[in-house]
Design a protein that fits this description.
Length: about 140
Amino acid sequence: MPQDKKEFALSDFKPYDLSKEEEYMNSAQLDHFRSILSNWRQELMEEVDRTKVHMQTELNNYADPNDRASQEEEFSLELRTRDRERKLLKKISKTIDLINKGDYGFCEACGVEIGIRRLEARPTADLCIDCKTLAEIKEKQLGV
């Protein structure tokens, strides 16, 4: 997608202008988050393409074992990063599905509103701040 067509790329994100009487998760808000998530997904996919090209063009069979090890470590780090992004892409797709179903923006644990600003900070959030805090405390206690 050409740079000039992006509405809410992560690099030029604009917060939602919330009015006092506005209903939570109305169509304008849902469009705002759908756009953020779609552009985020697009940027991640472009990064996957860049990685593929980089790994194909930079693949050298170095004679020096240290050079070869450095290249393998660089590729390994890049692949681990792409694997994390692959998982994030799945979460983004799941979140876009929630938007399309009209279930976005509400805590999966207790059902309260997650909040516009929290969702702008983490568009894939599925827990309110209280439930997320409790979940993190439980994780620490259980050593997960």
